Structures are given as C-alpha cells and as structure tokens.
Amino acid sequence: MNQNCRCDGKGFYFKKERALKEDEDKTPMNWPTGEPMMIEISVECECTIKKKAKRLMSISEITDEFKKKSFASFLTEGKEPIVAEMKEIATKYYVDYPNIKKERRNSISFLGQPGAGKTHLLSALANNLITKRLQRVLYFPFIEGFNDLRDDFNALNRKLEEMQRVDVLFIDDLFKGKCSDWEVKQVMGVVNYRYLNNKPLMISSEHDIDKLCDIDEALGTRIYEMSKDYTVMIKGDRWKLNHRLID
Predict the structure, then answer these.
(1) For the domain bounded by 52-246, which CATH number is listed?
(2) Distance, CA of 72 to CA of 93 (rounded, Å)
(3) In angstroms, what CA-CA distances link 59 with 122, 145, 159?
(4) CA neighbours closer than 13 Å in the CB half-sphere of residue 164
(5) Rounded to 5 degrees, what are φ and ψ at 229?
(6) Which is nearest to 168 in space by CA: 205, 135, 209, 119?
(7) What is the pLDDT of residues 60-97, one digit of tens each?
(8) Which of 66, 98, 132, 135 has CB atoms 3.0–4.6 Å from 167's, for a disulfide?
(9) What is the Cβ-side half-sphere exposure of residue 222, based on CA atoms within 13 angstroms?
(10) What confidence tens digit (pLDDT) does each residue in 189-228 have?
C-alpha cells in the first residue's frame, strides 16, 4: 500500500460535491431542510494517471531523445515569424484537441523546410497528448519504419493495423527521399482508414501539399482536409530557417 498516495494504493478515492439538477442550468439541489445536498463520487487518483501515462509513453515508440522535447525548450527568439507560428499552432492544437479529436478536421501538419523544428514541436505535442490527455500516440519515422517492415510481411500487417487504430498517429518525415509505389500504397491505406474513421494524424514532411498531391492526389487531399485548420507551410531562406545552419 502506498502511504504517500491519496488513494492508499486503490487507484481511486471518494470526494463529496454538490448535487445538481439535470436541467440546463445544472441548478444546485438542497434537502427539504434547506441544507445543500451532497453526493459522494469516485475520483481516479493522480498516481493511477501517472502510471497510465508512463505505460502509454513506453509503447509510443517515441525515441528517448524526442521524449525530452517540450514546448518550453522550443525557443523562437530571433527566429523567423513562421517558426513562432508553428509553436503557436502546435500549442493551439493541444488546447483544442479534446473538442476536435472526433471531427474530420482533427489533424496537424508541419510541411516544408528541413531543420525548422517540425519534429521537435510535434514530438512536444505528442508528449503532452500522452502525459496530460492520456492518448495513445504511435510514432512512425517514415524511412526507418518502412525499412524495418519491408521484408517481414507478418510484422507489416500488425504495424499497419496498429497505425490505423491508434488514438493519434505521428508520421515523421513523410515521403522523405525517393519513395516507392509500395510505400505510397501502404501509407494510403493507413491514411484512408483514419480519414474515414475521423482518427487524428500528426504529419511532418519536407513536401508541401502540392508535392504530396503529386505523389498521390487522393492521399495529399485527405491529409490537407484533415489538417487544414492546423497546417503550417515552412518556406524561405534555409540560412534563416534551418537551425542546424544557424546555431
């Protein structure tokens, strides 16, 4: 039994709160004597929430380095305005997520210039969705992910099904390098499933929407429709945008 935890190891505790009527205004209820009517409700303990977050992080496949990424560590001072816009959109998405996660337009895409911080911010967003929203996020690096799956058909089927069904799918560096028709087909199957079932995507790519549509128009337009409210296109002088050249 955990003596330092409010639930004493049970995973929940009880607290009293004011009973409310089931009307539009949620009017507080009183006893005939005029005394406030109180009810006892069970509350999930913070220790249980932390355990869930730890388990979700352990199966996210986010690298140890990316697990360290946060919004606070993403500095925008002295950077181009588009970099600050990326951070603003990422934090806005986190705030909006509970209200949009089951809608068609529930995804986020950072597209364009390498080295501008796309993966950092999306990793920070993923970490927050896991630890604070208790969402299951799966990280899939495009090149490494398909290299690992290309020669293992059974592993491929399991991974594609996981990518389809997970709460939030984070595809990093989508279509980086020369992509094959086979890779496009696999990604299309995943994106189409998530599109039809209103399941969120997080996408980073060096390609803009036009280029994604050139690769596969059905795929590109689905990604755009899903993420159009939270898309940032990063274009400009690489010497001002690529932090690897600046720092």
Answers:
(1) 3.40.50.300
(2) 16
(3) 17, 15, 13
(4) 14
(5) -80, -15
(6) 135
(7) 999 999 999 999 999 998 888 999 999 999 999 999 99
(8) 135
(9) 21
(10) 999 999 999 999 999 999 999 999 999 999 999 999 999 9
